[in-house]
Amino acid sequence: MIFTNFKKFILRELIFPKTLIVDYPGVIINNTIRRFGKGNVRTRTSYYFEDIYSNLYLDSLREMGKEEADLLWYKIGKDSSLRYLLFLGDNKFSDNIVGLVLEHCLNTIRSTGFSFSGSFSYDSKKKFLKISGGKNVICRKTGSGSLVAGIVAGIMTYFQRENFEAEAFCGDCSNFCIVKSCPEIEMKYFPNIEELRPMKNYASLNFSFVNSSKNFNSFGDLVKFNKIYINNDESKIFFLGKAVLTSEIGLGELFLKNYIQIGKLDLFERSVIKSSEVLFKDLTENEDLEYKLKFVSNLISGFGWGIPHFKKRGNVVILFIVNPLRTRYGVSHIKYIINGFLNQMYGKNFKIKKSENQEIIFEC
After folding, report:
1. Contacts 24+ apart (CB under 8 A), 92-99
2. Domain 6-196 CATH assignment equals 3.30.1380.20
3. What pLDDT sits at residue 16?
4. Which of 62, 97, 171, 345 is deepest in the core (most CB within 10 A)?
5. pLDDT under 50 in the chain at which residues?
6. In the prediction, which pLDDT does 6 show?
């Protein structure tokens, strides 16, 4: 049975027993997948705004058309769930516990706001999975179940040890969605598993430095200071009224990587920067510059993106991030989010002039 009290699950089952470690500024550590995998597996988690990604899909829909946009987002969903599960290693699960492990995975996914996993049924003989739910993060605003279907396809591919696909049936995505996965669904996308595996030095790059400085907020501080609101009815987490979702840090980079691969970096950049400008305006309207500077620094550290240090020299803003997000893809999509924040904060149009390792330089 899928859990019914979302708020209790987040607070009692994740944060308080330290399954999700939220006490350190700049980094959030997730131990939830240790239950069924090899011991001492940790992933780094970050929080992101729903509006940025739902707007990205809608902008992609307008520019690329529905078929191409849906396939792209299906691939991103499948890549992201496979990548997450590959932290478990190459363990093979016996048929008699696959249903239990699937339930655990769906509970974990639901904790990120994907409430499509409100209920599920699994037939181990037919290898048939059916899940349903409503008010899913992102697709409740896009009207498309392609990302959700991709996530489910990745889950089934991992546990079945063969390529599986999935289909979403969304009569009204904002209220109800059904996703099915079984061997009979025609192949859409065969992922490159080796490209999705976490780096061998993932832990040393992401957890070697943990800052307990009181000058920056942790996600736990955001909860303590009532900036985080958990809506049990909708299975959503809100930051100052804006829905946020959480994922392993590779998800955002997989979005960017897939857009780059099809020659749509410009689309990604324009959409994310524009959405971030609007978002930052809504969050900080009528506040002075000093407040906005402190706000953006605490947002970056509280959401687990690292510890930011800003310097402004004329028309140049230099951002140095301690303990930045590190994945194998060598790209960082949060620089476009921060770009939008800076544009709105200073009323200027900044461009990214340099982005290497821990340093990002913006210039207007």
Report:
1. 92/161, 93/36, 93/159, 95/124, 96/124, 98/122, 98/124, 98/159, 99/124
2. yes
3. 42
4. 345
5. 1-3, 10-17, 34
6. 53
